[in-house]
Amino acid sequence: MNMYNITATVSGSWGTTLVGTVPEGFRPKAQLRQRCLVANVDNDMSSGLWVTTGGTMYVANFGGTGLHGSYSFSCTACWPAA
């Protein structure tokens, strides 16, 4: 799966924003967390894509100070389908 320039607003240490749903038959067997490239950020924040076994996809902060505001996220992720 490729995610390119998805704009999402996140805030708080574990803040999340729903960005889509993986269709049945293509959902991961185990929860997936993948780091993303975040546009317009000069420091290394721990954030990325979170995909659940139910197929919901979130852009999320993964603890720490995290991002606060609206950003553009890009990443590539792959997983074995359920």
Primary descriptors:
82 residues; 4-stranded antiparallel beta sheet; mainly beta; 7 strands
- Work out the number of β strands: 7
What's the N-to-C terminus distance? 15 Å
Largest β sheet strand count, sense and barrel closure: 4 strands, antiparallel
Q: What is the succession of H and E elements?
A: EEEEEEE
User: Which strands sit side by side, in order, in the main sheet?
Assistant: 2-6-5-3
If helices are DSSP runs of H or I spanning 4 or more residues, what is the number of helices?
0
Percentage of residues in strands:
over 45%
Helical proportion?
under 10%
The average pLDDT value, as a whole number, equals 85
CA radius of gyration is: 12 Å
User: What structural class do the secondary elements suggest?
Assistant: mainly beta
Shape, principal axes of CA atoms = globular
Q: In terms of per-residue confidence, which ranges show pLDDT below 50 for 5 or more consecutive residues?
A: none
